[in-house]
């Protein structure tokens, strides 16, 4: 990717809907996105795999379930919004109770008539809380967020340092700057990034697979927009693939054991065959070894006459000997 062009790319703010903590219109899906979420809960939430597609109001939405949040994308892969998985779990349970009805809006949203009173109740609770407790609660949260961001940055730097020269270009320069900004903005993303099984090498493989799917099979190169590139990178680290990685690691360990066992068996078989040949050689009568014909004394070569040496270079005469 061209670093000069990538510097111009600014990641649009992604709308996030949380389980709790933010009341009012900012935490409501709205009619269109609410329908997309409801269709996902009905048809894709319990399906195997992390990726699915749903259709709402004639529009196609791609959905990717990660460890902490689920992302909703347009049909071209552009990010629209994200929903915390804890919130989706509650909404799914409510929807499957059978009390919602087909026309009901997705649950987990505050009733518009009670939003103002709910916010007033929260403000009253805060007002009654001792100032020292409020400060302590906020400072602890801030400290945790800062620590997570610092830890994520340290892992990024150490991972980049361990990369091979041809791998570093995927993560240097403006890409690194973007990721550090994301660490500062999103504590949940820090936690995703800090997962032990997440590596830069696997991230590269994930993005290459994404790029390969975006072009015809006959193409040997894919041109990817900077914003899409960054989304793919974040998708990899957010993707909830811990179980998948555990299965892959288990299979690789089993395959390694099989290979080592097969190699040991081949070595033992070879050793057994060698031992059998040696034993057979001892049992069979010795084969007489043909004797070499005795050679007589070599005749001294006659000194070549000057006549014999015509047309040849006499090195000794050239040296004055």
What does this structure look like?
Helix 5 runs parallel beside helix 8 and helix 9 crosses helix 10. The chain has a five-stranded mixed sheet. The N and C termini lie far apart (76 Å). It is built from twelve helices and five strands. The model is unreliable at 1-12, 99-119, 131-142 and 306-321 (pLDDT under 50). Strand 4 (69-73) and strand 5 form a beta hairpin. It is elongated. The chain is an alpha+beta fold and 321 residues long. Among the domains are: 11-125, no CATH class; 243-273. The chain has helices spanning 3-6, 31-43, 85-96, 112-128, 131-162, 165-168, 174-185, 187-193, 200-213, 226-238, 242-283, 315-318, and strands spanning 15-17, 51-56, 59-65, 69-73, 79-84.
Q: What helical percentage do the residues reach? A: 40-55%
| Average pLDDT taken over every residue | 75
Label the overall shape: elongated
Structural class: alpha+beta
Strand content: 5-15%
Task: State the separation between the terminal residues, measured CA to CA.
Answer: 76 Å
Poorly predicted runs are 1-12, 99-119, 131-142, 306-321
Number of extended strands = 5
Helix-strand sequence: HEHEEEEHHHHHHHHHH
Q: Order of strands side by side in the largest beta sheet? A: 1-5-4-3-2
Radius of gyration: 37 Å
Number of helices: 12
Main beta sheet, described? 5 strands, mixed
């Amino acid at each position: 990717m061209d670093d000069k062009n990538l510097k111009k790319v600014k990641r649009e703010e992604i709308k996030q809907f949380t389980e709790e903590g933010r009341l009012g219109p900012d935490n409501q899906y709205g009619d269109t996105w609410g329908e997309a979420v409801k269709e996902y809960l009905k048809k894709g939430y319990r399906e195997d795999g992390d990726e699915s597609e749903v259709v709402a109001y004639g529009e196609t939405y791609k959905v990717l379930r990660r460890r902490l949040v689920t992302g909703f994308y347009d049909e071209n892969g552009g990010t629209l919004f994200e929903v915390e998985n804890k919130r989706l779990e509650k909404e799914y349970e409510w929807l499957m109770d059978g009390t919602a009805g087909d026309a009901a809006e997705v649950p987990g949203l505050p009733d518009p008539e009670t939003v103002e009173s709910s916010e007033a109740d929260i403000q009253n609770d805060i007002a009654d809380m001792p100032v020292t407790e409020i400060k302590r609660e906020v400072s602890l949260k801030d400290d945790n967020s800062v620590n997570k961001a610092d830890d994520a940055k340290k892992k990024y730097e150490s991972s980049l340092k361990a990369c091979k020269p041809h791998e570093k270009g995927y993560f240097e320069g403006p890409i690194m700057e973007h990721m550090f900004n994301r660490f500062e903005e999103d504590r949940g993303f820090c936690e995703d990034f800090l997962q032990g099984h997440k590596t830069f090498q696997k991230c590269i493989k994930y993005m290459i697979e994404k790029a390969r799917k975006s072009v015809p099979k006959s193409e040997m190169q894919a041109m990817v927009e900077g914003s899409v590139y960054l989304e793919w990178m974040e998708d990899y680290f957010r993707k909830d693939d811990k179980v998948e990685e555990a299965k892959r690691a288990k299979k690789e360990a089993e395959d390694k054991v099989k290979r080592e066992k097969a190699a040991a068996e081949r070595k033992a078989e070879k050793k057994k065959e060698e031992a059998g040949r040696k034993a057979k050689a001892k049992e069979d009568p010795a084969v007489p070894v043909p004797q070499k014909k005795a050679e007589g004394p070599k005749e001294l070569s006659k000194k070549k006459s000057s006549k014999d040496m015509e047309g040849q270079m006499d090195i000794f005469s050239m040296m004055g000997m």
